[in-house]
Amino acid sequence: MAERSTAAVDVADNGGDEPLTAQTGKATADGADAQDKTGADAETAAADKAGGASEPKNPGPEVEPPELHSGHKLARRYRLEECVTRLDGFSSWRAMDEKLRRAVGVHILPAEHPRSRPVLAAARSAALLGDPRFVQVLDAVEDNDLVYVVHEWLPRATELTAVLAAGPLEAHEAYQLVSQISQAMAAAHREGLAHLRLTPSSVLRTDSGQYRIRGLAVMAALRGLRSDHPQRSDTEAIGALLYSSLTQRWPYEEDAYGLSGLPKGVGLIRPDQVRAGIHRGLADLAMRALVNDGATASRQEQPCTTPEELAKAVAAMPRIRPPEPSFATPAYQPTAYQQGAYRQQANHGSPAGASRPVPVPPPPLQTRTGQVLKWTVAALLIAALGLGSWQLADTLMDREHRNDDSGPSQSTGDDGKKKPAGTPLRIQEATEFSPLAAPTAPEKVGDAVDGDASTAWVTPRYEGYANFGNLPQRKEGSGLILDLGSVKDVSGLDIRMYRPGHKVEVLAADGSASAPTSLDGFSQRLTKDESTGQTLRTTLDKSVRTRYVLIHITELPSDGSGGFRGGISDIKITG
After folding, report:
1. Whole-prediction pTM value?
2. H helix or E strand, kind and range, residue 480
C-alpha cells in the first residue's frame, strides 16, 4: 500500500532545539532548489568550499534516477513539465499542481536511495520553519518506490547568478542582500536548521527587491553534505555571496556560477583591492565573514562566526541609503513664446530662405455674443464659489455644534485637555512566567525585549493541544513577566507575537515589591484573554499604576502539522 506523509516532523516536547544534521535525518542543511541548473563538478566543489561542507566518505551504492518524463503525474496531482537537474541519483523538475493550478518545484529520488530518509526528514523540518524569507516546502511524500519533495516555484524571481551576470551590485543593494540573508539564516539556526549549500544559485531576488533563500535543509540532504560547524559554514557562505556581489568575482581560485575566481596564488584579497569604489564597510563585513582565522586583526575587528553575529554587525553599520534617482534632462530649447514670436520651421521642400506661413491665432471674442458669453461664465463661477463657501461654513458650524453637545472627544481627558502622547517605559528585566514547572527557554527571554523583532523568545513545541499540550505542569500557561524597575503609570502596549493565532491576556500586579509567582498576584487586567494576530496593540482608557506586567499566553498557535508553538518577538510599554 502506498504510504503518503504530509510535511510534518516529530519533535520532542523540549522544542527540538538540538542542531540537526542531514546525515541523521533531521536536516540542518536545506537543499538547493529545483531551479538550480548548474550541477557542474567545479561549482559543486566551489559551493562545498564556500560553505565548509563535506560529502560523506561512504555515500553508499549509486542509484540511478527514476525514469520519468514530461507529463508524468505524482499523486494524481503534480504533473511534471521540465527536468532542470539530474544528478547524484535524484532529479529536479518544474511541475504543475493541477489541484491549485500553480507551478511548483519537485525533487524526486528512488525510495531505496541511501539519502531518501534524510531528505524526507530535512524537508519536514524545513516546512515547520514557515519563514517567508525562505522558499517554502509544500509537501514531503513517500509513495511506493518514490520519495519526492514539493516546494514553491517563483517564476518572477531572478537567481542571484543571473543578477551578477549583469554586473556587481551597488552598495545599497549589496547591503540589503547581506542584511536579509544573514537575518534569515540566523532565524533558521535558532530553529536548529542550517543550509550548508548557500550559493548564488540558491538565492532569488523578487520584483519587490526582497531576497528569498531556497533549498533550506533539502539539497544538503540530497547531496549528503554535512559540517561539524554548520553556523560557521553558513556564515562563510554568506560572506562569499557578499564578496561576489561587490566584486563580480568568486572569492576562491575556482570559477563558479558564471563568475571568474581570484588569481591563482594570491590568496583571499579584500574586495576593495579587486575593484575600485567598493564601500569599505561592506568590504570589511565580507572579510569578517569569510576569514575566521584572524585576517581582520589589522582593524581590530572580531570575525563573524555565526549568522546572528553577522546580522548584528550589519545592523551596527551606518545605514546605506539607496542612490538618488537619475533623470535624463533634455537639452533646453526656448519656446516660441520665450523667443518673442512664433518660431518658423525651415521648409526643406522649398527654396532656401522660404518659410512656411505662420498660423494666425483665432481672434478674441469681441462680438456682442462673445461679450455676453464671457459675462455669463463669470457669473456662474462666482455663484458656484459662493455656494461652496456657504456649504463649507455650514458644515463646520454643524460639526462644532455637535461636539459641544456631546462633550470632549476621545482624544481629550475628563478636563477637556488633550492627553499627552505616551512615552516609552524602560523594561528593567524580563523573566519567563512558569509557576508550576521549570522555565522552558530562559536564555531567550532577552530576545523579546531587545528592540529587534527578528529575534524572539519561543516556546517548545507541544503535541495535540493548544493549551501547552494539556500538560498539568502547564495548566496556568506561560509568558513573560516585565519589571519596570519601580511603580509607574502604564497607558499603552505594543506587543509583536512570534506568529499570529495566540490567545493572550495582559495583567498587572498591585504595587508588589517583588514579582508575583502565580496568577493570583496579577489582579489588574489590562486586556481581555482573546485571540490575537501578529500584533497586540492597545491604549488603555485609564492608566494603571504597576511595576510588574505579565503577558500571559493561554493558548499557542498551530504549526500546521498537529503541533503548537508560539512566543513573543518584541515588547514596548508606554506610560
Report:
1. 0.53
2. strand 478-497
Start-to-end CA distance of the chain, whole Å, equals 63
Which three cell numbers, joined as nine digits, stand for 353?
530662405
User: How many beta carbons lie within 10 A of that of residue 145, not counting itself?
Assistant: 10
> 3-state class of 510 per DSSP?
coil
Report pLDDT for 67: 79
| Dist. CA 260–CA 245, nearest whole Å | 12
Q: Which helix (H) or strand (E) holds 525?
A: strand 524-525
Q: For residues 246 and 60, is the Cβ–Cβ distance under 8 A?
A: no
- Report the candidate in 413, 403, 410, 451 with the shortest Cα–Cα distance to residue 430: 451
Q: Rounded to an integer, what distance in angstroms lies between the CA atom of residue 193 and that of residue 28?
A: 4
Instruction: Please say whether the dihedral angle defined by the alpha carbons of residues 288, 446, 135 and 75, taken in this order, is positive or negative.
Output: positive
Q: What percent of the chain has pLDDT over 70?
A: 73
C-alpha cell at 358: 505662420
Q: Which CATH number describes the domain made up of 424-574?
A: 2.60.120.260
**Composition of the chain by helix, strand, coil, percent to 5:** 30, 25, 50
Cell numbers describing residue 323: 542612490
Residue of 118, 99, 100 whose CA lies nearest to 109: 118
pLDDT at residue 350, as a whole number = 43
DSSP collapsed to 3 states, 227-259: CCCHHHHHHHHHHHHHHHHHHCEECCCCCECCE
Bin 6: left if φ > 0, else alpha if -120 < ψ < 50, else beta. beta
User: Does residue 231 carry a pLDDT above 90?
Assistant: yes
Instruction: Look at phi and psi of residue 16 and say left if phi exceeds 0, alpha if psi is from -120 to 50, else beta.
Output: left
The C-alpha cell that represents 112 in the structure block: 531505496
List the grid coordinates of 493. 502596549
Q: Which residue shows C-alpha cell 493541477?
A: 98
Look at the domain 15-322 and name its fold: Transferase(Phosphotransferase); domain 1 (1.10.510)
Tell me if domain 15-322 and domain 424-574 are identical in fold: no
- Domain layout of the chain by residue ranges: 15-322, 424-574
Which H helix or E strand runs over 204? strand 203-205
Q: 175-189, 233-247, 389-403, 434-448 — which is least confidently predicted? A: 389-403
Quick: pLDDT tens for 404-413.
444 333 334 4
Q: Is 518 left (phi over 0), alpha (psi -120 to 50) or beta?
A: beta
Q: pLDDT for 129-171, tens place per residue?
A: 989 999 999 999 998 899 999 999 998 899 999 999 999 999 9
Q: How many CA atoms lie within 13 A of 409 on its CB side?
A: 7
431's torsion region: left (phi>0), alpha (psi -120 to 50) or beta?
beta
Contacts of residue 230, Cβ cutoff 8 Å, sequence gap at least 6: 19, 21, 28, 29, 189, 194, 196
In this structure, what DSSP letter does residue 200 have? Answer: G
